[in-house]
Design a protein that fits this description.
Distance between the termini: 49 Å
Helix content: 40-55%
CATH class of the largest domain: Alpha Beta
Number of domains: 2
Largest sheet: 5 strands, antiparallel
Order of helices and strands: HHEEEEEHHEHEEHEEHEEE
CATH architecture of the largest domain: 2-Layer Sandwich
Number of helices: 7
Strand order of the largest sheet: 2-1-5-4-3
CATH topology of the largest domain: Heat Shock Protein 90
Shape: rod-shaped
Structural class: alpha+beta
Strand content: 15-25%
Amino acid sequence: MLLVEKKTLFKFVSVFVGLNTLFLVTLSIFYYNYQKNEYLDFLQNEMLNYAETASESIYELDDINRLDDFLLHDDRFDVEIVDKKNVVIYPADEHFDMKFQKGFFRSNGYYYYVKSLELDQIKDIHYLVLRSETIDPQLEQTRKSIYLVLFLSIPFFAIMIFVLSRIFLTPLREYIEFLDRFIRDATHELNTPISILSMSLERIEQNELSAKNTKAFSRMLVATRTMSHLFDDLSFIMLAQKSSVSTQVNVKELILQRISFFLPLAEAKQIELIEDLQECELLVNEGDLSRIIDNLLSNAIKYNKINGRLTIKLDTNILSVADTGIGFDPAKSSEIFGRFTRLESANGGFGLGLNIVKSLCDLYEIAIDVQTKIDEGTTFILSWKSSRIIHTS
């Protein structure tokens, strides 16, 4: 599976499962509250029905001492009978711990129902008080059912959307693989003509050309080296070229070589090159370091202004490449290293150069810092650990 496909699949599954989890949790809350209200309504109705039945059972009572014989009992409820002053008449040995009020209510973990009584023959009886256990056991069972449904449904949805995503992403994966194969093949096929053009131009004796042909030669050289640089970047990205072992590299000499390569491009924009290079030798792969320098120089030329300056400095453990170009918003400094990222589209390119620089710098533990200001220019500063320095002078 391609990396981009993995990221897309992970994000899609995460969002889908997250939204479904949120939906199920919200639904569970509504269901729990609904069940709670249902249990309460059922309990209230049962207590109300019993209160009516119990009050009818003692309607003919004429002696309060015979109350226990007349009163209809129900194991679900405890019963108290109190007078107008809320003094318990029945039973004599028990008193409910509650704040007295009429109707259906909860107090101290129990549910109560208080009904007024009017008995002509026994004036002391005034209220019938019922007490019931809470509905916590029923609610606990509801919670367990909800937890079970959530526990089973979330993995189910995750597996289901994962399988469906794989199916739906198959055409996209095949298309991406087709594009990758096409770009690899195209890159491979471009290698020969670009190499032939480069070698042919290198063999031309410029002093034998007319002024008109010299200008044409310069344009061809710029175009060929631009294509060559783009080809190198595409090859590095698409052909997954692997670096060889690190060797001792004279950084100053390598920079001068790469400046020479990009000189026609700089001259085409009349860019002044300023060099301040100290001797420095590093333990690094020469091809990788060359690719870092190439992309920094290419960027500095591409985004520079006509008649601008390009300053390259090499010190003990620091390499800086500064231009006087268009710059960009400093807030976007972290974005410019993303693959295919281009903050400015007028100058073309694939948005690969700085991504390659960042990946290689990370490989060799080279810190990279960016200083930029819109319309004033950009400076890339590379610093490496002293353990990579072989010799400086």
